[in-house]
Design a protein that fits this description.
The complex is a heterodimer of chains A (89) and B (251). Helices cover 91% and strands 0% of the residues of chain A. Chain A is mainly α and 89 residues long. A two-stranded antiparallel sheet of chain B has the order 1-2. The chains are: A mainly alpha (89), B mainly alpha (251).
Chain lengths: 89, 251
């Protein structure tokens, strides 16, 4: 009986220590984990938005280049018209 | 004894279970320290991305303003050109449409055989006149018009050159020496070798020959190609009218 008591006491200690090791490590709460997930989602959304804006910026830059070309041609055309009209007169 | 065995079993089961559960949860349950670290990293990343996005939005807005300004500048340039030639946008469009019609006419004439082109020489002259009229208009200096008009002018010149190459010329000699009349000229071997084709020479030279019975020495007559040797309907009509008037004593 004494031996049994001793064994049961040892077991109880072992179980208690195990429980302490498993249960007492600090972990974030469910709300905190959700907060981290929301933050990650926000970062992903920002990355997508930035990608879209960069695409938009690239298209606008092409448009600016095209307009510069059109303006140069228009200026050349204007000068040619002046010269033709001078010959006309 | 029984209790001891049970006890040993209980302890063993507890140890096994605790190791198993710890092994599974270790994969998806972060510690508080890990959570805090990730929160800090993602927060920094989010702030940097927000800043980047703000910068991009400013750049996009600036580009949009630049585009609007350049579009205004371009419109102003086009308006200046219209003012120089004294035209509206609608007038230039109308002129471009007219040139398109003439280009289509020129294309149709270019596709004709030599004989058909010769018969439709009048149409070539019409296109030529239309082009000349447009060239006289100051609006033709507009960039949307000028280059196309010059290209069309060249095509008309090419058609006229082609007609010119087709047509021989014959200088009328004297009656006493050459016995030159339209009948005899058409009969010549190097002309048509066929006197009945004399109306062809007459029709090709209506500006010089009013009466086919009267031609003058020194006249340079255009001699269209013989082709298949048959008169066209116009030539036949002219010949029929001539013979009728002869019979009726009107000539």
């Amino acid at each position: 009986m004494t031996f049994l008591k001793k064994m049961m006491t040892h077991a109880l200690v072992i179980i208690t220590i195990s429980a302490l090791v498993m249960g007492c490590a600090r972990r974030p709460s469910a709300e905190e984990v959700a907060q981290l997930e929301d933050l990650k989602a926000e970062v992903a959304a920002l990355e997508r938005e930035i990608s879209s804006k960069e695409e938009e910026k690239s298209q606008l830059q092409q448009q600016v280049s095209q307009l510069d070309q059109d303006l140069r041609k228009c200026a050349e055309d204007k000068e040619k018209v002046r010269q033709r009209l001078q010959q006309w007169n | 004894m029984k209790y001891r065995s049970l006890l040993y079993l209980l302890v063993a089961a507890l140890f096994v279970t605790s190791f198993a559960v710890t092994g599974l949860e270790a994969q998806d349950r972060m510690t508080r320290d890990e959570w805090q670290q990730q929160m800090a990293e993602f927060t920094q990343q989010r702030d940097e991305l927000r800043q980047r996005l703000n910068t991009l939005e400013s750049e996009v807005n600036a580009l949009n303003e630049q585009i609007a300004s350049k579009q205004d500048e371009y419109r102003a340039c086009r308006e200046e050109i219209l003012a120089l030639v004294g035209a509206t946008e609608a007038e230039i469009r109308s002129l471009v449409e007219r040139i398109q019609q003439l280009e289509n006419q020129a294309s149709a004439l270019e596709r004709l055989s030599d004989q058909d082109l010769l018969q439709r020489r009048g149409e070539v002259d019409e296109v030529k006149k239309a082009v000349e009229d447009i060239k006289k208009d100051k609006k033709s200096a507009h960039p949307d018009v000028y280059d196309r008009l010059m290209a069309l002018d060249q095509r008309v010149k090419n058609l006229l050159d082609r007609l010119e190459r087709m047509v021989q010329t014959y200088t009328v000699g004297t009656w006493s020496r050459d016995r030159d009349c339209l009948w005899n000229i058409a009969k010549k071997g190097d002309i048509y070798n066929n006197a009945w084709l004399w109306p062809r020479i007459w029709q090709a030279n209506r500006d010089k020959i009013r009466d086919p019975d009267i031609i003058h020495p020194g006249q340079r007559l255009q001699v269209p190609p013989k082709g298949d040797g048959r008169m066209t309907s116009d030539e036949q009509s002219a010949a029929n009218r001539y013979y009728r008037e002869k019979r009726e004593g009107l000539r």
